[in-house]
Design brief:
heterodimer, A: alpha+beta, Alpha-Beta Plaits, 3-stranded mixed beta sheet, B: alpha/beta, Rossmann fold, Dimethylsulfoxide Reductase, domain 2
Chain lengths: 218, 718
Amino acid sequence: MANYGIIVDLNRCTGCMTCVIACKQENLTRPSVWWNKILELESETLDRITYLRHACMHCEDPPCLTACSHEAIYQRPDGIVLIDHEKCEGVGDCADACPYGAIDINSAADYFPDHKLPFEEEPEPHRRHPPGKAGTCTLCVHRIEAGQEPVCVAGCPSKAMIFGDLDDPNSSIGKKLGKSVPLLSSEGTRPKVRYICNENLLKMIERRIRKNPKMVRS
Amino acid sequence: MTDMTESKISSPLDKKDAMAGDDTIGYTFCDGCNQAPFCGIKFFKKEDIVTCIENWPGFPAAPLCTKAYATLQRLYHPDRLKYPLKRISPKGSPTPEFARITWDEAYDIIVGHLNRIKKDYGPHAVFFYVGDPKEPRAAVQRLAATYGSANYGTESSTACRRAAMLAELLTYGFPTLGDLPSEKTRVMLIWGTNPAYSGRPYMIHGKLAEAKERGLKFIVVDPRNTPTAATLADIHLKPRPATTAALAAGIMHVIFKEGLHDNEFCENWIHGIDELKNYVKDFTPERVEKISWVPAEKIIEAARLYASQGPGGMLLGPQGTIHDLNATNNHRAILMIPAICGYIDIPGGITKPTEPLEGMAPWFDGPPKFSMREKLIEMKAHRLDRKEFPAWAEKFWEVQTNYLVEWIKAGKVKAFLAWGFSTMIWPQTHEYQQAIASLEFSMAVDYFYRPWTHDYVDMVLPAAMNFERLAPFAVFGRQIFGRTPIKPQGECKEDWQIALEIGTRLGYPEIFFNADVEAACNDILGMWGITYDDLRNNQETGITIPPQGPELFKKYETGKMRLDGKPGFATPSAKIEAVSLVLEKHGYPALCEYKEPMAVTRDYPLILISGSRVPYITHSKWREDAPWLFELQRHALLTIHPQDAAKRNIERGDDVILKTPYGQMTVTAKPTILVPAGIVGVEHGWKDANVNELIPRQFDPISGFPPFKEIICEVVKT
C-alpha cells in the first residue's frame, strides 16, 4: 500500500504561482478558494524573501476527520484525506479544526456570474464544488488514479516539489524524507506534506501560518 | 495495484460518472508573455470545446506557467471581441461608440484608406505596427513591404528587446542574451533579469537550480531581492539603477588589475582594448561603490569569481538594463566582461549557434525572404527615424517608434495599422493617444476592447487566440512544430489571416496566397522541403531538419562568424568592439562609457524602477482577460522598502501618491524588502495607474529607449 505525500523544497520555490493556477485550471475551484497557496515570508534581518507552497497536509492523524460530526471526511488506505460532498453539511468544524488553515467552505460565486464557460458546462466530478460544502486539496486523486502526479507537482517550473510513496525508501521522495520536516509538528497531526528548510525558517513559517494562513498578495 | 482498486471504490471522485464523450487531443503554443510562438500546450477537447491543458511532452520551450494555464479561461471569456467594430462616435470622446460591421465592410474601409493615402501622400505615410503578440511580424512586414511603406515598427523597436540587441550587434556582431549553462559552464553572470519569473522567456529556473546543485556558481546583479537572487546567487550585487556601465567598469578594473583577463583574446580579438583598459583604470572599487552603491569588496569578489573560475556564461535581460538614458552603452559595458575573460564562443561560454536553420530568423524578426526584408531595407531612405537614430537605422529595418507623436503632428504619418498594440507602452502615454486619435485612419487587431488604446482608433478587429491559430508554426533551433487549431469564436480571425486578406484585397492575391494561411506557412516550410501536413503527421515530436555538421566553437578563428567567411566577428573591425566603429562614425561616445543618471533631490529622494515583472501579468495584458490571474492581484502595487515606508508613515495596503517631476498617480503601497531602501518599484500597464505617465519623453540617444528605470520620485501617503 502506497503512502502518498509531497516534499516541498523551499530552496527552490520562487512563488511563481504556477501551482496555484495549474490547480485552478485542473480542479476549477471557485473564486477566492485556493487549494494551492503561496505564502510570502520576509526576513528583514536576513534580507530574504521566502515563498511557501501551502495546501492540505493530508495528515496521518487528520483533526478535520475527527471534528466532522457527519463523518463526511475520510482517509483512503493510501493516506489521501478526502471530503465526501454527499455527507458534508458545510458546518465548518473541519475548517476550524485544521491547524494549517487548509479547508475552505465553497462560496456560490463564479468567475463569470451568470455565464458558464463551455468547459464548465458538464464538469467531471473533481471539478464540481457545490456551494456551502467544505473543500480542500484532493492531492489530485483523479490524476493519481490515472497514473499521474498531482498537477501542482507536475507543473512546478522549479521542480520544487516531489510526489510519491513516503514508505518507499528507494523512491525519489523516500530519499529526501530524512532532510524534510513537518510543519506544526507540535499539533501531532503527522502531516504528509513536508518541507526542506532550515530551523529558523521553519519557526518563521509556523508563526505565519498560525497568524494568517491566507494567501495575501497585496 | 490492488490498493488502486480498493481506493477507487472508496473515492467520490470516481470517473465513472464523468460526462460522456471521449476527449481528443490538440496542440498549440502559448502567447502569454509575448514570445512568438512559445511554450507548448497540449490540450484536451470534447468535440471543439477545449476542456483542459497541460505541458506538451518533450517541447523545447517548457514548462508552462500561470499565463499558459489561464489561456483556457481567456479563450471563452464572454467579453472577447468577436466581430469587427467601426467607430461611430468622435475619437477620444468620453463615451466611445462602435458599430458591428462585416469583414467585407472592414476590408473595404481599410483598403479604401490605404489606396487613398498612397495616392495623396505616398505609401510611407502608413505606419505598420506589431505589438503583442509578436506572432504576425512576418506577415505584417510582407504587407508593409508590398504596399510600399518603409515604416514598420514593433514593441521591440519601442521599448523592448531591440536596444539590448543593438548593443550586442555593435559589440559582438551577433545577437545574444547568453545561454543556459552547459555542463562545461562553471560560473554564471545573471544581470538585470529574473529568470525565475520571466526572461528566457520560458521557465528555466528548474534548470538553473539543477546547475547550482551540481556546483555552478552564480553572480546575480539586480537591485531587487528577486527569487532568482534568493535561490541561486552566491554573490548578489544590488546596484543603483542606471549605473550599469560604472559597475561593469569596476568589475573590469579588478580583472585587469589582477591580471585575470584572457590577454591573448584581448589583444587579438578586441578592438579598443587599450582604450577600455585606460578607461576602467579610474573605476576603482571604492569609487564604483560610491556611484553604484555596491560594496567595494563585493565588486572585487564578483570579479575574481567570474574571471578566475571559467568558463563563464551569462544571462542578460532583454529590458532590465536598457531602460535608462545610457541604455546602449550600459548594456555594451556588461557585454565586455565575458569578452575580456575570453568566454566568447567557447564551450560553456557565450556561443553563437553554428548551424541556425537555413533561411529562418526567429519569428521576432521573421524569415527574411517571406518577410520581404530586402524590399523594406531598399526603402530605408523613407524611414522616419533615420535622422534621429542613425546607428539604430543602420542595424535594424524596424523603425524606432518613440517620435511617433512628432511624425503625426508633422503630417508624416496619416494612418496606423496595428496588430496587438497598447498606447501604454509609451512614456507620456496621453501624447501618443492624442496623436493617434488625430490620424486620418487607424486600425487595431486585438482579443479584447482595451479602452486605453481602442478609444483612440477607428476600427477594432477581433483576433483568434492561440487555440484558434494555425500560424505561425514554431521553430526552436532546427526543430519545427505545427499546431491543431479549433474553430475560432464568433467571427475572429487569426492575425496572419487578416494581414493576408488585406494584402489580397489590395490587389496582390499571389503575393498573399489568396489569403490562405496554410499556403503562406507552406511557402516558408518549403525552404526545408516540408509542408504543414508533415508537421501534422509528426505532431507531438515535430520535425528536426538535420544540421550539416557538428556544433563548432571559436568560430571567429575559422571564418564561420561572418557572412563573408573571413575570420573574425561580424563587426566593422572584425573584432569585438569595446570601441564601436559604428557609434564613432555617427558621433556617439564609442567606448562603453558611464553616464551619471538623474540625481535624486530633496523633493524627489527615491528612484523609480518601473516595468519589472510578476509571472502572471505581461505588459497591459491579462488582468481581467483571465479572472484566475486577476484574482491574484487586482491593482498596481508600489513596492517600497519597509524603512522608506516607515519614514513616510506608510503601511501595507495604504493608498499613496507616487510622483516624479513628470507626473503623479495614486497606487497601493506594499512595504517589502523586494526593493532596497532608496528605490521603489511599480509594474507597468495598469490602466488606472499607468506609470508611464510619470516617465518623461527623454530617450537614450543611441537606441531611442525611454528611462523607465532611472527617474527620481517621491511617495506620499494620501
